[in-house]
Structure formats: structure tokens, C-alpha cells
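lol so apparently i was supposed to do this last week
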Amino acid sequence: MDGQVPFVDLGAQYATVRVQVEEAIAGVLGSSGFILGQEVTQFEQAFAAYSEAEHAIGVDSGTSALELALRAYDIGAGDEVITVANTFIATALAISYVGAQPVLVDADPDTYTIDVGQIEGAVTPRTKAIIPVHLYGQPADMDPILDIARRHDLVVIEDACQAHGARYKGRRVGGLGDAAAFSFYPAKNLGAYGDGGMVVTNDAKAAEAVRMYRNYGQKEKYVHMLRGFNRRLDSLQAAVLNVKLGHLDEWNAARRAHARAYDQMLDLPLVTPQVPDYAEPVYHLYVVRVKNRDAVQQRLTERGISSGIHYPVAIHEQPAYRDLGYSAGSFPVTEQYERQILSLPMYAELSEAQIDRVVAALSEALEVEEGPLSIEAGRGAGGA
Ligand SMILES: *Cc1c(COP(=O)(O)O)cnc(C)c1O
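anyway here it is w/ pyridoxal-5'-phosphate bound
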């Protein structure tokens, strides 16, 4: 239907890169370099340069990138890793895969990223690392996090899976901590045509370890230094990503323009994450908070507007993580927001007319459903 607005539209993006992508794929098919072919090396070099970092190692998913980065720093059984309750499950899963214990802290009520003020209280003698998440494409407040890490001798691994190209105090995410994990899941700002991921680091030793871990622990052919995995980035995906990386800045700029349009047109006092001076976000998601979220979402659906919830159930409330020992009320900001957040359609190819339709439908829904949250009422329980 003409009035439909999808949440993401991968087909619209494909139409803009089809010829280049098909050529790149044909190049891999012609060369038969399917495993760690030249496309992988090319993309690793290009992505390291893009991220303003020394090394980039292609792996098979963002989850693997997080896991192998943890392994590169020998984090494992008996260790604790601090991260935020308000994230996608994969952040916690990667910590669990290496045998370590996820230790959660709440989100900041203004930025929705990790509440930096709560990190130090969660540090114990077992703590080995912090994983801040650049949620929705907005960098976490890295400087105080790095300070805490320095004081307690902790590793910092950025979960940059939603933040390709975002900047913190002018610097790209990815090279800010000890290592960073990116995902190329198709709907991410930089998406493959399948799964893919990348570890980015300025630490040559960690880079070497991840290179071995992703490829059976191999240093040279048939010499296995450690018990590694088969977690390589596919050459076909690297070929696609090489093409798409050339468009990423332009796509991120379009996302930022759409976010500004949403900001301006929603002249309702709608509550969105604050963007601090330190942040240049890339709007992987555009998230608003509303009262009666489920009813508002239902009305949008009826008007043909797709939306999402990122995320409806926090890590500590997941059946898989009951044994962490947290309970309802452990993370009040995260728990309040998961009932209020709504992600509006957001992708580079979104048109002005589509944004107008989203705004019209949302305004109407909010009028019926008791109006928007007031800024005051929207503050999280822990808010300043
Ligand atoms: C997508 C995502 C991941 C996992 O990436 P995959 O490529 O899907 O494994 C991890 N963390 C966050 C915050 C993500 O958004």
C-alpha cells in the first residue's frame, strides 16, 4: 500500500548499489577466493582506516567479535565483566561464552547508554573488563569509563555493533577502548548480505590473538597456537561490505538528517535520548518514549507504519539470565524505559513524505492515547 512505511527497507538500499555489488560478488566467484580471500584483507584495511584504528579482523558476526575480543584478553572462567542491562542479548551472551560472569549496571536516564556513575560500585576483585554499548548509534561516555578502567586495571571493549561511524569527542568509535566489536548484520548501518562482524583494535597483540582465534588458532598453516574456532568473515560478505563502506558516511548523514526532521516535526514535547556535546551519533535507531506505548504502536500499525522496541525485555529479565540473581527493580531506568520506548522507521533511503506520514500517524496516536510523556515525567527514577 502507498501509505506504508517499513521499519527498514533493505531493498531500497540494494537498488542504490546493485551494479557495484553484483560486480564485486562476481569477482569473488571468478577468483574462487571464498575463504579469507583478498576482499577480506581489503575490507579489513579499509575498515581499520575508517575507524581510525590500527587493526581490523573480520569475523563471522558481531557476537563473535565480542567473544573473540574477550578471549584475546584471556577473560574467562572466574572473571566478571561489567556491562549495561539495557542492551541486546548478544552483549551478555559473548561474556557467557568465554565462561565469565556478566555484571550489569543500569542505563543513564538521559542518554540510555551505560550509567557511568554506577560502574565503579560494580567493580570487584574479579572484574576484568567493561563493555560499554554505543546504543542506538550513540557513543557511551568513554572518557570516564577509560579512567575507571585505568584505575582498576580493566580492559575496555566497545560494543560498537550499532555505531559504525559514530564519533566521541571527534574520534570514531572503535579505537577508543582496548578493542571494539562491530556487527554487519544486514539491518545495521553497515550491513552485509548475511552475517558478519569485525574486531577493531590498536593493540597488535590482541589483533594477532583474534586472527588466530577466528581461524582454528592457526599462526601459520597447520601450526595451532591455541584452541581456536572457525569464525572467519566470508569473502563474499567482505566484497559486499567493501562496496557499501564507500557509502556509509553518506548513509549516516541521511540518517542524521532524518533524525533532525523527526526532532523538528515532532513539536510535541516528545522524549528522546539526549545527545551530549561529546557525541556525534549515527542513528541506528530513532527511539521515542511514550505513555501507553503498546496502544500507540498498535495505532501506528493500523496506519501502515512499522515500528520496533529495542529492547522489550532487559538482560536480567530474560529466562536465560534468571541465574544472575537480579530481580524486578534491580535496574529501574531500564525497566521503566522498556515499557515506554518505541523505535520509529529509520534508514538512509527514508523519504520526506514517509517521515511526514510517520509524524502524522504518531501525532494522531498520541492525541488519542492521552498525549505524550512530559519531559518531567519521562525522567528515569535515577535521573538528576
Ligand atoms: C547486533 C548487535 C550485536 C550482535 O551482532 P550479530 O552480528 O547479530 O551477532 C551485539 N550487540 C549489539 C548492541 C547489537 O546491536
